[in-house]
Amino acid sequence: MLKNKNAINIKSEPLMYLPNVNSLMKISLGLIFFTMLSTVLVYAETSFDVPYTATGLNVIGIESDNESVSLIFSVNVTDLDSKLSVVLDRSFFDSVYNKLPIDYIVLADGDYALFEEIEINSLSRTLNITVPSGTEELEILGSILDDSFPIVLVDTNETSYFKTAADKAAADKAAADKAAADKAAQTQCGPGTILQNDSCVLDERCGPGTSLEDGVCVLDSVPVTSSSSGSSKDLIMGVTIAFVIAGVIGILLALVARANRNKN
To answer: Please, are residues 74 and 61 in contact by the beta-carbon 8 Å criterion?
Structure first.
């Protein structure tokens, strides 16, 4: 009897340390919640936003090409004067040589496109690209590309891109100021003209022979040409002609006198 009792105690001893069903359920639910949370956090931290501003075109989509180390934008051009401004995160897409930044290469349907880099810092690079009419595919080539995570297009014209409406208003004001400065630079008028209604017209505020200087009409300065050089040339020409005529007459008189002597 003692042996049987001891055997029962030995067999039941490991069962005391096994978790019950409720504990297993709690552990399972905890693991599921942790996995879901980790997935959300990983996606949020490793997806790359590509902010852009489109003028005269629509951006349909974007994809990466690891073989050519490039980002490819699918676009639909709706205007003759089309531009795409794009901000590139240098942590996943950059163009460098010997650890120094170099120019990207931009192609529009396989042909080189005009662009300028308007801003560069340690985090991002901003390109302004002129998109020719009829372009369907715009490709930006670099030297470093991390395409292991999703790339998200973000239209900066949308208020949701900015943290507050004030940020959106500030961005709109900056864009308007830049457009006004560009327009002013393009409409600078030349001498004798003024800007009226966004076009250059003749400045008729001063009469003929005068010009406007510091808000006052003054006489135009007329260069005075000296006639001394012309007079000298005329004098020399006259003296030369006189000598030639006198010589001819002298030769004729000499010939006549000689003919008379021979006759006598």
So the answer is: yes
Q: Rounded distance, CA 22 to CA 135, Å?
A: 63
Q: pTM for the full model?
A: 0.47
What are the two backbone dihedrals, phi and then psi, of residue 252, each rounded to the nearest 5 degrees?
Answer: -60, -45
- 6-21 burial, b if ≥16 CB within 10 A, otherwise e? eeeeeeeeeeeeeeee
Cα–Cα distance measured from residue 216 to residue 202, given in angstroms and rounded to the nearest whole number = 16
Distances (CA, A) of 10 to 2, 5, 7, 128: 12, 9, 5, 79
How far apart CA 234 and CA 104 sit, in angstroms, is 70
- What are the pLDDT digits (tens) for 120-151? 999 999 999 999 999 999 999 999 998 888 88
Amino acid letter, 52: Y
